[in-house]
Amino acid sequence: MIKRVKELRPDADIASPKFRKFLEKFESEINRGISTLCVLSIISRYEEKGIYGYKILKVLEEETDKMLIIEEGTLYPLLKNLERDGVINSRKQTTGRRRKYYLLTDDGKKILNYLTGYYSKLTKAISKLVDITVEFKNNYLYCPMCANKIDLSTEDIRFCSVCGYNLEQELKERRKE
Amino acid sequence: MEDEVEKIFENYLKKIKQKLPDWLTDDKEELEGVLGELEDHLRNKAEELSDIGHPTPQSARLAIAHLGSPSSIAKEYKRRGTPHIYITKELWPIYKKVLYIVFPILASLLTFSIVFNLFTGNFEDAANFIQYYTAFASAFLIITAIFVVLSMEGYFPEDLKSKTEKRVEEKERVKGKNMGLPVSPETGEQLKPFVKPIEKFIGGAIIMVIAMMLITQFIPGFFSQMDFEFRIILLLFGVLILIDSITTIIRGLLGNTRVYIHQIIQEINIVLKILAIPLCIILILNPEFFPVGYWEGAEFIISDIPEVLVNSFSITMIVLTVILIASIAENVYEIIKLQKYKV
């Protein structure tokens, strides 16, 4: 986010190395986890054919209006680690360029649901503190116990698949609404 | 121009390859995949940055600048594992395991050295505790330094195993699952069978034959030529080995069930080894007990050990005793390991 430092006014706060260093460190800490969540989210959209590294960066740039940018050199090690953890798998393109397409594994889909749910609930929870408004879409339910994101339109559910919490009460309330 | 672009990419990828950690470059397929997708990325980026729709030398160099230096890329690949006091959490269990194995062996060696020095009257050497502390500290520092470097290089436990080892391990895990063995509470991985019954039966049978030979001493004209004291020691060794062979066969019969009995058997083995130590020390202190055998024409003669061989026999016996003591550590490790199988 903090870019083109040389073009900034010399008396701006950001010109102070101490100030800038703190902000850069803070941004990097926040971005690390969010980047993984966004990468998984983008991969999940390409369920059939999969998506290759360069395209992931392009989609991320477009979807976040260049707000969240993963450094090119860090994307591939990140994908490799996710693959090693069994969250994603890859298949090589057999013709033409040496390209690798990434897809979410079944475990990866569950992990993404949980991470999305957790991140959404966390953002809503801190919304008052940072003075923003967060609204959830109606077709999802977030497990009150563990924050797993549950798609109400596709799943025949009674219990949360992650923590086993009985969701009957929440489902009844949702039906009343 | 195309050749120049190819050369730029080729040189850059070559430099990355040189900087990548060994765990990645050792696996040719994996390395090919990593370099392949980096190359694909560079071509895409260079095309995007080019004015003419395909990569030019200038856009190729720009694409490389965007991707980063070979060192920074390699650094990202090495950034694996969860930091945990300089050694990653992933390598921590192996680090502890190595210390658990090395320290008892070292302690056994040093204890033996103290006892030997006491028996041979070298009291000054026996009392030199600084050298013992130095040995422990050196071992600790060397092992720790190795694991810190492995952590910095991004090694995971599976990178320290060969492909064949990984395949065998996977097979064993499937076997463990089919047997209904539990998953490890620490790693969540399926535990492998801890006993191979056939190995135990064959091993136990061989040990039993040796034990029976030492106990009965039935080979005519062989044992009868030895000193009485040496034959008594052989007999005692025979009894200890016989018990060991019986417990080995029992382990085979039990298979991968009744973990607590396997643990008791390991404890019995420790007792047997401790009982064997005094017998070894008697032989070290009395090398003249050892017989030597040789053919004289058609006759096999057994006689007392010649003076010139006394030292070699003593040293061999010392080495065997050290191995015996060190193997106690293995039994202790087995007992701890078996604890995981108790559901």
Give a description of the structure.
- The complex is a heterodimer of chains A (177) and B (343).
- Chain A is mostly helical and 177 residues long.
- Chain A is 49% helix and 9% strand.
- In chain A, the strands form 2 sheets. Chain A has a two-stranded antiparallel ribbon with strand order 1-2.
- The radius of gyration of chain A is 20 Å and the shape is flat.
- Chain B is mostly helical and 343 residues long.
- Chain B is 70% helix and 3% strand.
- Chain B is built from 13 helices and 2 strands; from the N terminus they run ααααααααααααββα.
- Chain B has helices at residues 2-19, 22-25, 28-49, 57-67, 70-78, 92-119, 123-126, 129-152, 163-178, 197-216, 228-254, 259-285, 310-338, and strands at 291-296, 299-304.
- A two-stranded antiparallel ribbon of chain B has the order 1-2.
- In chain B, α3 (28-49) packs across α4.
- The radius of gyration of chain B is 30 Å and the shape is elongated.
- The relative contact order of chain B is 0.08.
- Chains A and B meet through α3 of A and α3 and α5 of B.
Secondary-structure map with pairings?
The complex is a heterodimer of chains A (177) and B (343).
Chain A: H1 17-45, H2 53-63, H3 72-84, E1 88-92, E2 100-104, H4 106-130, E3 140-142, E4 149-151, H5 168-176
Antiparallel strand pairs in A: 1-2, 3-4
Helix pairs in contact in A: 1-2, 1-4
Chain B: H1 2-19, H2 22-25, H3 28-49, H4 57-67, H5 70-78, H6 92-119, H7 123-126, H8 129-152, H9 163-178, H10 197-216, H11 228-254, H12 259-285, E1 291-296, E2 299-304, H13 310-338
Helix pairs in contact in B: 1-3, 1-4, 1-5, 3-4, 6-8, 6-13, 10-11, 11-12, 12-13
